[in-house]
Design goal:
Blueprint lengths: L2 E8 L6 E5 L2 E4 L1 E2 L4 E8 L4 E6 L22 E2 L23 E4 L1 H4 L5 H5 L2 H7 L3 E4 L3 E2 L12 E5 L5 H14 L3 E6 L11 H4 L3 E7 L2 E4 L6 H17 L5 E4 L13 H16 L4 E4 L21 E3 L1 H12 L7 H6 L1 H10 L6 E3 L4 E3 L13 E4 L3 H5 L13 H12 L4 E5 L19 H16 L14 H6 L12 H17 L12 E5 L4 E6 L2 E6 L5 E4 L4 E7 L5 E3 L2 E4 L3 E7 L1
Parallel strand pairs: 8-9, 8-21, 9-12, 12-15, 15-16, 16-17, 17-20, 20-21
Antiparallel strand pairs: 1-5, 2-3, 2-6, 4-5, 6-7, 10-11, 13-14, 18-19, 22-23, 23-24, 24-29, 25-28, 26-29, 27-28
């Protein structure tokens, strides 16, 4: 039944704003701060929009919770409190000691919906991960893309099932003991369907980053822009029961204020955590290599919970594959010494020269003050796969043995491990860059730009997938039948065994970086990681070899394949294998 409802929108740009609800138009009143309000009768699922000045086309609510007809269509009222939650027993879980599983809803299952993803959650429980991290799900134009072209940050894309399906998904995760982390993008907006500038100055004057105009965080009228961002973060955590946020490319958030927007966000999220009685997590993707990002506020940091460590990925990737082009150059040159450096200090570029950037980069981590779990470690992620010319996973380049070795290094590291969907079984399906821009000119420009970028680096243009081709999206969907075939079944067993080992042996979740030690031999391609009384021995060579330990080994707790041979203070590992050993 219709009810009296107040509609409000912050719109200092237009001189007149009218509200259209189910076709009826109502005047709105403006206050001194640029907020417009009107109380009208509206049904609980009424469609509405805002008429700005003399524009006859209603525009969607910048804070719309639902867009059933896409980002150009009307907004629809949605009450998040109407969901009958079944997760009252869920008290959350801290990130420390956990394992994250990164998932793109559209390609995780053939159906590409949140409900279909929820039906696969038992696989993740059996695998042994603790958190599901969803790539962005907010409203974007088109039917499918990675999610980083969103324009309506408060809405859930209808193709995924909309906000109701999202709440069902989070509920299902919590009932299975899985936390949910939502990837959010606050550094730019997508190129199509962004009507926010018609309402308020969302962009900074003259500022731009890799993806478009910079968001207005410190210019005139930026108070409400910051509020728009922080309220969105709180919305996911409070209304959708999400346990954490992954903050995309925070180095692109240009904020000249004394209190950075990330510090302000961390303060408010901490308050909400206390009010809700469960831990809430903020994870930054940052290219700054600045440990102050995750340093507590009382110690002069921004107070975020954790951040991704691309340096770890680059070191491990270059050691396993031998690739040394582009930003892999410094890591490939350093070899195992570089991997040891990241294992003990989180960053490789910690004030060191970066040949890719042609300058010194980063700042050292105080390993006595910052725990390793504050850094996420991964062999693959959506960027490191999808930004390759053909979107090939590392499984397309490595033997099953080296894939298992890579998994062992990640899952026994002092960091918070993260897996990209399908990695646990060495999925052979690619994960390519795909878009579905409805505008022909934008679609053409996107495809030509993508193909041209790689052609400049020597790639045959015919080999680079067209992001606008629907087949590029279809090819990127996981093939779940692979789990029943070799070598996928064996690699899945390796991941399950390693995750079980982490739970059984506290030394493997010890995040004290100052206690870490690594020995290695670049020429013979072996490495031993010291984890308390445990030793993680790795043989990257294509032949068996005897590896020196610093003390006698007693027992083999885990091996990626054929069991190694123990002899006094040495272990003989088969080719391309790894083992976890107990020592006296």
């Amino acid at each position: 039944m219709p009810e009296s409802a107040e509609f409000a929108v912050w719109a200092p740009v237009p001189s007149r704003v009218r509200l259209q609800v189910d076709g009826a138009v109502h005047d709105m009143q403006r206050d001194d701060t640029g907020w417009w309000r009107a109380s009208v009768e509206a049904g609980p699922e009424a469609d509405y929009g805002f008429l700005l000045d003399d524009d006859p086309t209603p525009r969607p609510d910048p804070r719309s919770r639902r867009q059933p007809e896409g980002v150009h269509g009307p907004s629809r009222r949605y009450d998040p409190s109407a969901h009958d939650w079944a997760d009252s027993a869920w008290t959350g879980r801290p990130l420390a000691g956990g394992v994250v599983y990164e998932m793109h809803v559209g390609t995780f299952t053939p159906e590409g919906t949140l409900d279909a993803a929820a039906a696969r959650l038992d696989h993740l429980v059996d695998l042994g991960v603790d958190f599901v991290e969803l790539l962005p799900v907010n409203g974007f134009n088109g039917t499918h893309n990675w999610g980083y072209d969103g324009v309506l940050w408060y809405a859930v894309q209808e193709e995924y099932g909309g906000p109701a399906a999202y709440q069902r998904f989070v509920d299902a995760c919590h009932q299975r003991g899985l936390g949910v982390i939502q990837d959010v993008v606050y550094n730019h907006l997508g190129p199509s369907g962004n009507y926010l500038p018609l309402f308020f100055p969302v962009f900074a004057e003259g500022g731009a980053n890799t993806w478009g105009n910079s968001v207005n965080l410190s210019g005139p009228d930026s108070d409400e822009v910051r509020r728009y961002i922080i309220d969105n973060a709180l919305m996911w955590l409070r209304d959708m029961h999400v346990d954490g946020l992954r903050l995309d490319a925070v180095h692109a958030l240009v904020d000249e204020r004394a209190t950075h927007v990330l510090e302000e966000m961390a303060q408010e999220v901490d308050k909400l955590s206390v009010a809700l009685g469960r831990p809430l997590t903020l994870i930054a993707e940052s290219d700054l290599n600045d440990p102050r990002m995750v340093t507590p506020r009382v110690a002069g940091g921004l107070g975020l919970t954790a951040q991704w460590s691309d340096d770890f990925h680059h070191s491990l990737h270059s050691v396993l594959t031998g690739e040394g082009q582009g930003y892999y150059s410094d890591f490939a040159e350093a070899g195992l010494a570089g991997l040891a450096r990241t294992l003990t200090g989180a960053y490789f570029h910690d004030g060191a020269w970066s040949s890719f950037r042609r300058r010194h980069h980063g700042r050292p981590v105080d390993t006595a003050a910052l725990a390793g779990w504050k850094f996420l470690a991964y062999l693959q992620d959506h960027d490191q796969i999808g930004n390759r010319a053909v979107g090939d996973r590392i499984s397309a380049s490595l033997s099953p043995g080296l894939l298992a070795v890579g998994a062992t290094i990640v899952l026994t590291s002092p960091f918070t491990p993260m897996l990209f969907m399908g990695e646990e079984w060495g999925a052979s399906t690619p994960w390519q860059f795909f878009t579905s821009h409805p505008e022909p000119e934008l679609g053409k420009a996107t495809a030509e730009g993508r193909i041209g970028e790689f052609a400049e680096h020597g790639w045959d243009a015919d080999l680079v997938p067209d992001p606008q081709d629907p087949e590029t999206f279809t090819r990127s969907k996981l093939d779940w039948s692979e789990l029943e075939r070799q070598p996928h079944e064996r690699l899945l067993a390796v991941h399950r065994a390693l995750l079980a080992l982490r739970r059984a042996h506290p030394e493997l979740v010890d995040a004290d970086l100052s206690a870490m030690a690594v020995s290695w031999d670049d020429a013979d391609r072996w490495m031993v990681v010291h984890r308390g009384t445990l030793r993680v021995a790795v043989n990257l060579a294509d032949h068996p070899q005897e590896i020196d330990l610093d003390r006698p080994a007693d027992e083999v707790l885990f091996a990626t394949g054929e069991l190694p041979t123990l002899d006094a203070e040495t272990v003989t590992l088969p080719a391309e294998s790894a083992a976890v050993l107990t020592t006296s």
